[in-house]
Write a structure and sequence with these properties.
This protein is an alpha/beta fold. Helices cover 35% and strands 22% of the residues. It has two domains: 106 residues, Enolase-like, domain 1 (2-Layer Sandwich), CATH 3.30.390; 221 residues, Enolase-like C-terminal domain (TIM Barrel, Alpha-Beta Barrel), CATH 3.20.20.120. The protein contains eleven helices and 15 strands. The strands form four sheets. It has a seven-stranded parallel beta sheet with strand order 5-6-7-8-9-10-11.
Length: 352
């Protein structure tokens, strides 16, 4: 696709509360927006926002690559197909693909979900609620999610002693009931023996899956075989070729974070191989602004009716989109997310 303008903008958004990620405390979310313009004046926006502690590339590296792409455009390379070389950092590829697909959607008279293959009859994307805080707050929020009709809720485990995690999961299972799927994320916190103990103690609680329970990730197949614990892959997917995914068929699900994995098309390839192996694919965010989150909404709409892990968006105290995306009722309407009346607050952007 031919591009007539290539612009970069820096943003910095406050969080509702400090966010601790692998020893790094974030009080703001930072990233770069890419704007492509087509010959008819249509615009396509994408977001590159490496997540400290999780992304392979730094923000500096992402900026460097985006500026290099802009220079190629300025030197006369106007066709986007030539920009997607193998050396692009994951967050940069996500930004470039999202902007290019947004632009393609305008040209083809479609929405972004439609360009990614979402069925025309799909009207909403369900949202996985995120449970945070102390035990009292978590249980109260879980009850509120159940009353609001949410289909899935997620709790971080591995930050408390295993016994406390077990007790909280048991209570949560009772509060949520059978109508709300309970997902857990351990972020590779446990030894093999700790994971064994946890799996044994929560048997019968109806947990949908536990993301990355082991510090020794290579022992995940052994853990699944020994305990029957439904495990999900997250960090394991980083750098994993999609065609290698069937070798991990012991897993119940894969958690797809395009900012970390390398874009929307890579995520769709992972979905294909996950389905062949009998795994559920779940789209999840890495605290992107509303611009990047729209790309994730479109991806979730394209892969099926599975609640997406997009609730981290609500940890942003402000957004680049006006009005903000509405995730407050357990789902987001696609017609609302991709309403042409929603604008980007360019007064919050700094030209890069």
């Amino acid at each position: 696709m031919k591009v007539t303008a290539f612009d970069l903008f820096r943003y910095r958004l406050p969080l509702t509360a400090p966010l601790v990620l692998k020893g790094v405390t974030l009080r703001h979310r930072e990233g770069v927006l890419l704007r492509l313009r087509g010959a008819d004046g249509a615009e396509g926006w994408g977001e590159a926002a490496p997540l400290p502690g999780f992304s392979r590339e730094s923000m500096g590296k992402a900026k460097e690559q985006l500026k290099a792409l802009r220079q190629r455009f300025l030197e006369g390379e106007e066709e986007t197909d030539s920009w997607f070389d193998a050396g692009l950092a994951p967050s940069v590829r996500f930004a470039l693909e999202e902007a290019e697909l947004h632009l393609r959607a305008h040209v083809e008279g479609k929405t972004l979900p439609g360009v990614l293959g979402a069925p025309s009859e799909r009207n909403t994307v369900a949202i996985n609620g995120l449970l945070v805080g102390d035990e009292e707050a978590v249980l109260a929020e879980a009850w509120a999610m159940r009353m609001a009709g949410l289909r899935a809720a997620k709790l971080k485990v591995g930050r408390r002693p295993v016994g406390q995690d077990v007790a909280l999961v048991r209570k949560l299972a009772g509060v949520l009931g059978e109508g709300v799927s309970l997902r857990l994320d351990a972020n590779r916190a446990w030894s093999f023996q700790e994971a064994i103990a946890f799996a044994e103690e929560i048997a019968g609680c109806g947990v949908a899956y536990v993301e990355e329970p082991l510090t020794e990730a290579g022992r995940l197949p052994e853990l699944a075989a020994a305990t029957g614990l439904p495990v999900a892959l997250d960090e394991t997917l980083v750098g994993l070729p999609p065609e290698a995914l069937p070798a991990h068929a012991y897993a119940r699900a894969v958690v797809l974070k395009p900012t970390l994995l390398g874009g929307l098309h890579h995520a769709l390839r992972l979905v294909h191989f996950a389905r062949e192996a009998g795994m559920t694919a779940v789209v999840s965010s890495t605290f992107e602004s509303g611009v990047g989150t729209c790309g994730l909404v479109a991806l979730a709409a394209a892969i099926g009716d599975v609640p997406a892990g997009l609730d981290p968006y609500n940890r942003l105290a402000d957004d680049l989109l006006h009005p903000r995306l509405d995730f407050h009722h357990g789902a987001i309407e696609l017609s609302s997310a991709f309403d042409e009346g929603r604008r980007i607050k360019q007064e919050m952007l700094e030209v890069l």
